[in-house]
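User: Please fill in residues for this 120-position structure.
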């Protein structure tokens, strides 16, 4: 897994953040689910507890979505994936917030979430 972009957002629960990541995954067999995952760019949205410099994530507390299927990591693949990430972020974020019972301290602007969108 190679992270392209990662951003944390404070929530109404002290010590808990929502982490939004866009990353490239080599894919392959997921031995936990038994599924064969595609190689490509993904977005993940997860609540994480931050304490003493460490992060703790509960199993099944977040979500991920394939943004762009590709055979290898490249700048052009990232350029294709990031606009899709911008479009998918609100829906995935709403799902995770509702599922976990959290609220953000302030609204998210996707231009701030992905400020380097034009620089990939």
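Assistant: Residues filled in for all 120 positions:
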């Amino acid at each position: 897994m190679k992270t392209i972009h990662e951003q944390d957002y404070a929530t109404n629960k002290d010590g808990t953040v929502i982490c939004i990541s866009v990353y490239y995954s080599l894919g392959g067999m997921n031995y936990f689910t038994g599924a064969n995952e595609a190689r490509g760019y993904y977005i993940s949205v997860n609540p994480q507890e931050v304490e003493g410099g460490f992060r703790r994530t509960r199993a099944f507390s977040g979500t991920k979505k394939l943004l762009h299927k590709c055979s290898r990591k490249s700048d052009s693949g990232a350029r294709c994936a990031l606009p899709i990430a911008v479009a998918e972020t609100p829906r995935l974020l709403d799902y995770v917030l509702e599922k976990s019972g959290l609220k953000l301290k302030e609204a998210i602007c996707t231009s701030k979430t992905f400020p380097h969108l034009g620089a990939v």
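For context: Residues 2-111 form one domain.
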